[in-house]
């Protein structure tokens, strides 16, 4: 496997499985564990309609509990594999592997340093998660490459053809001493990207990630970009997201054309004990033959699902109730990591 033919697949390419970690009493979900488990059960049911699911559990007792919950909901357990490993929390988009592949069926698990989003939370066990999964034999013969540079999977979007989209707000927080040019070089080298596109604007209140791209703007097939818009001029996000929309409109494809943009509707403010929560519809998950879309119990849920489905033609659209997730400042995409077809064993 030569480095020159590695690439970062797009999420809409064929997958072997989705990877999640089950919440438990020693994670930040402890206060509302029963509520958040309803989302995990719904997510597991949705994923296993279309493909396999790998669930990381802390121990045998948690596995038995999760199995009981899933069985009671009629989830297809034959499509689920459990792996017992320790973890701090369940945001596997950020602690899970960023998988590169070549054209001959070989894979590289790219294992960046996970710092708990810039040291906000303890992350020692999460940073060791990929190595633990490798040792457990989840990824067969895939190469495992550790890179001592902080990057989370939610901080990058790939079109599968060498373009990576990211946000300056996030990466300059992780690496304040580095220039944009230096970080572009590191991203290009480690992800084998041909070009790095940066957004300077865009954020959501209640977001611990410092503006991860997967809460804001997502590549879709056919040179499309789906993004979180805000049409409420009285909302504090309005100006920033308008500026981000203008940035997206100015981006060009590798052959010089503008992207086709799909603005998503804005959910009404969701406030929990005085704290605004980050309810982004852009935080959806693509699986084989379907796209799983967050629902927040808002009147905009159905319109968001319709637009995301339009941007991903030919896929079944499945809404997953995600209101419990945003209590901990993330949503559907944040708790999952897709694995390309051929890697999971």
Give the helix/strand layout.
Layout: E1 15-21, H1 33-47, E2 52-57, H2 60-72, E3 80-84, H3 92-95, E4 98-101, E5 107-113, H4 116-119, H5 124-127, H6 129-135, E6 143-150, E7 157-158, E8 163-167, H7 168-174, H8 180-191, E9 195-199, E10 217-220, E11 224-228, H9 238-250, E12 260-264, E13 271-272, E14 275-276, E15 285-287, E16 290-295, H10 301-311, E17 316-321, H11 323-326, E18 337-340
Parallel strand pairs: 1-2, 2-3, 5-6, 8-9, 11-12, 16-17
Antiparallel strand pairs: 1-18, 4-5, 7-8, 10-11, 13-14, 15-16
Protein name: Agmatine deiminase family protein
Pfam families: PAD_porph (PF04371)
Organism: Dyella koreensis
Structure explained in plain terms:
This protein has a single domain (3-340), classed as L-arginine/glycine Amidinotransferase, Chain A, CATH 3.75.10. Strand 10 and strand 11 (224-228) form a beta hairpin. The two termini are 20 Å apart. The chain contains eleven helices and 18 strands. The longest helix is centred in the N-terminal third of the chain and has 15 residues, at 33-47. The protein has 345 residues and is of the alpha/beta class. The mean pLDDT is 95. It is globular.
């Amino acid at each position: 496997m030569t480095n020159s033919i590695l690439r970062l697949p797009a999420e809409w390419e064929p997958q072997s499985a989705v990877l999640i970690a089950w919440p438990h009493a020693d994670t930040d979900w402890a206060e509302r564990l029963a509520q958040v488990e309803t989302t995990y059960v719904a997510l597991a049911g949705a994923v296993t309609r279309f493909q396999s699911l790998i669930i990381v559990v802390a121990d045998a007792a948690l596995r038995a509990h999760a199995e009981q919950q899933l069985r009671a909901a009629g989830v297809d357990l034959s499509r689920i594999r459990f792996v017992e490993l320790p973890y701090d929390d369940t945001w596997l988009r950020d602690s899970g592997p960023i998988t590169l592949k070549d054209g001959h069926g070989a894979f590289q698990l790219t294992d960046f340093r996970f710092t708990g989003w810039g040291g906000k939370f303890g992350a020692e066990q999460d940073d060791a998660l990929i190595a633990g999964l490798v040792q457990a034999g989840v990824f067969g013969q895939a190469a495992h490459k550790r890179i001592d540079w902080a990057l989370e999977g939610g901080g990058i979007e790939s079109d599968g053809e060498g373009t990576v989209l990211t946000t300056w707000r996030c990466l300059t927080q992780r690496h304040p001493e580095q220039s944009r040019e230096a970080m572009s070089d590191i991203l290009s080298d480690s992800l084998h990207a041909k070009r790095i596109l940066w957004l300077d604007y865009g954020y959501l209140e209640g977001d611990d990630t410092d503006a991860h791209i997967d809460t804001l703007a997502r590549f879709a097939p056919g040179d499309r970009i789906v993004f979180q818009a805000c049409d409420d001029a009285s909302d504090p996000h309005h100006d920033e997201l308008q500026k981000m929309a203008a940035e997206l409109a100015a981006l060009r494809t590798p052959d010089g054309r503008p992207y086709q943009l799909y603005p998503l509707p804005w959910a009404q403010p969701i406030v929990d004990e005085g704290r605004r929560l980050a309810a982004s519809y852009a935080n959806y998950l693509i699986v084989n033959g379907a796209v799983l879309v967050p629902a927040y119990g808002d009147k905009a849920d159905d319109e968001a699902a319709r637009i995301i489905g339009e941007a991903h033609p030919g896929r079944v659209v499945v809404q997953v109730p995600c209101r419990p997730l945003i209590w901990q400042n993330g949503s559907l995409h944040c708790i999952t990591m897709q694995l390309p077809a051929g890697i999971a064993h």
